[in-house]
Amino acid sequence: MRFVLRALKALALLLVLIVVAGAAWLFAWPPELLRVGDGYAAKIVCSNVFIAGRNAEDVLEDDVQAPGNPLLRLVRVSVDRDNGRVTARFMGFFASSYALYRGGLGCTSVPDGDFEAAANAAPFDPPAKMETSDALWPQGESVGDADAKIAAVLADARLAGPAMRAIVVVRDGRIVTEAYGPGFSSKTPLIGWSMTKTVNAAILGRLMLDGKISFDDDHLMAQWKDDQRARIKVSDLLGMESGLAFNEDYGSVADVTRMLYLDPDMVSLPANAPMEAAPGQRFRYSSGTAVLLSRIWMDRVGNAQAAFSYPHDALFSPLGMTSAVFELDARGTFTGSSYLYATAHDWARFGQFLLQDGVWNGRRLLPEGFVGAMRTPTAASNGRYTQGQAWLAPSGRSAAFGLPEDTFWLTGHDGQSMAIVPSANLVVVRLGLTPSWLGYQPQTLLKAVLAASPQSGVPQQQAGSERQVQTQP
Q1: PANTHER family in the record, alphabetically (predicted)?
Q2: Domains defined along the chain, listed by start
Q3: I need a surface site. Which of 137, 175, 325, 329 has the fewest CB within 10 A?
Q4: Is residue 168 a contact partner of residue 429, using CB atoms and an 8 Å limit?
């Protein structure tokens, strides 16, 4: 009996030692997967608390934990409102990661915990917040009576999709119907994820109109000057055909998650990536490409203050996108791949702007042909992606769904989408929290909206919108 008791005590002691050693290991050397999870939690909670005004625990449960890896259910967050900081820890103790709120510039992930460096990277005051108006959209926020037929479409949960948060339908330049999920409204800023890429491309297009950058520019980064990467052109980056290696697999610790949640300088990883193909020869969807484009256009603006203000001054203010918050990394580069928050009304304004070929209130803001590039497929993507950070066929060609052939798309992680149909004068914005494994396809919603819509008048395309921009030599 004594032997059994001694054996049990020894076993208990061994288990305690294993637990203590494991805890010490997690505390001192947390695996990258846990750091990514905590980084993701801290960043998403920070942005939704300080930009969207949502409850931190609701965001943690609904946005972070519900649709993701089971390990995320063990993440705990704390919010320091006085200092604008969010801390996330696995099981409340391990793999600490942080996010910092920087006012009008939104939140940034601070994976190294260096809040001083993150604050100093964006020391300038952002532009003053624009006032909203009660005028009819798009001049203001008021919306007329809803189209009953389209409202019935949006009320169909199968068509709206799981966890829909906002749908806005714009026809002939006016919002004709909108719908919102529980807890969300036309005043709630929502993340676009990779829809941000197309907005980032449009910001670069504004610089093209001023002659500060062109599709054919090469020798784009200082570290590329002495090797074959110097041949990469702006057009190659816009079309996701740079030839740079980049792993966009969100199911593990990949280049994209390492860039977003482990590296305070998001430019570093894609800028130092090796070549895996000649420029223009291979399509590889890459969030790193969009971050590179951000750094390139920011450097072309001229100085840091002007660069931080440029999205607002060049695009958001002219379009009346009063809610738009474009976030930067911890070292001061706009996260052009992922982090733009805006209300569904403001996302719809951007869609209407593209529908009008980059013209707003009679003023051309994008060069003639630039939106045409957004609608022109690249050969390397097999006709799926375009020359301007947009999609023609995100998950099946338009004809396969019975959609007009001129349809093009902005799409983003977890079910964000914007369909632009020039021939029908139609923009459909759909935002939510709908992971891809649920199998939802926004094409079904668009098809139903088109079926419920009357024939439109003359499409709102300006001269030059159909011209294909040649981005290859």
Answers
A1: BETA-LACTAMASE-RELATED, BETA-LACTAMASE-RELATED DOMAIN-CONTAINING PROTEIN
A2: 32-118 (no CATH), 148-227+300-452 (3.40.710.10)
A3: 137
A4: yes
